[in-house]
Amino acid sequence: MSVEDSKKVLIALDYDDQQTALTFVKQLSPETCRLKVGKEMFTYFGPSFVKELIDLGFDVFLDLKFHDIPNTVAKAVTAAAKMGVWMVNVHASGGVEMMTKAKQALEQFGDDAPLLIAVTVLTSMDAAELTRLGVDKTPEEQVIYLAKLAKESGLDGVVCSAQEAKKLKAELGADFKLVTPGIRPAGSDAGDQKRIMTPKQAVEDGSDYLVVGRPITQSADPVATLKEINDSLK
Ligand SMILES: O=C(O)c1cc(=O)[nH]c(=O)n1[C@@H]1O[C@H](COP(=O)(O)O)[C@@H](O)[C@H]1O
């Protein structure tokens, strides 16, 4: 039986200034959201920034999308687990052996192991971009194909767009977590995201976690925007 998690919003902290990020974070409550640290902030501010967020009581999704040989990725997710993060991700296209080794590396952490999630097809990509890469499938077909490999490899779920959520839940089961960026409240700017959906529709279609960045962080009132999104999910 899957237990539904009421804290669905993962805020993407994509700032180039640590103080601005921390001032924003200190207005938030760990009861109403989780935080995502990605390549920009991790490259600027490193593990000490992640630890500071954890010390403030937040669950942190370390979004570094590891994509390397199995041994290197296994060691990298081990380092993430030692940092105390709640979720970490790898690229599914790194392969079954890489994903399997990464999952095995986390076994030593028992119940404290972070959730291990595989990125399928980036939400900034559409059918034309996949074709340019030589992939002869629609985004939905490719997401489902990679998600099945991730499940076979023992991972806890995938990053996908909410547009694929309904089909993935039906094919892979309720317990396989769906983490969906490309979330855009009605009327907000899509930016570089191509496969987008509103927060409410995403959850209705089966998203377990919504990654939301600019619609919150660049809002005139980020805390109010987060509240609006959370209220829309009740
Ligand atoms: O793994 C991710 O979080 C991710 C995967 C993906 O397919 N698309 C995607 O946008 N992301 C991340 O989700 C966040 C989305 O931010 P916004 O577009 O500002 O809401 C960014 O930090 C991206 O790095």
Task: Label this structure with key terms.
8-stranded parallel barrel; TIM Barrel; single chain; 15% strand; orotidine-5'-phosphate decarboxylase activity; 8 strands; binds orotidine-5'-monophosphate
Sheet having the most strands? 8 strands, parallel, barrel
Q: Helix tally?
A: 10
Give the CATH level 1 class: Alpha Beta
Helix/strand/pairing class, anyone? alpha/beta
**Beta strands, count:** 8
Order of helices and strands: EHEHEHEHEHHEHEHEHH
Percent strand = 15-25%
CATH H level, superfamily name: Aldolase class I
The coarse overall form would be globular
- Give the total of domains: 1
Description:
By secondary structure, the chain is an alpha/beta fold. The protein has one domain: TIM Barrel (Alpha-Beta Barrel). It has helices spanning 18-25, 39-55, 70-83, 96-106, 127-132, 139-152, 165-172, 199-204, 214-217, 222-232, and strands at 9-12, 34-37, 60-66, 87-91, 115-119, 157-159, 177-180, 209-212. Strands 1-2-3-4-5-6-7-8 form an eight-stranded parallel beta barrel, surrounded by six helices. The protein is globular. The site of orotidine-5'-monophosphate (OMP) has 20 residues, from β3, β8 and α9. Pfam families: OMPdecase. Catalyzes the decarboxylation of orotidine 5'-monophosphate (OMP) to uridine 5'-monophosphate (UMP). One of its GO terms (cellular component) is cytosol.
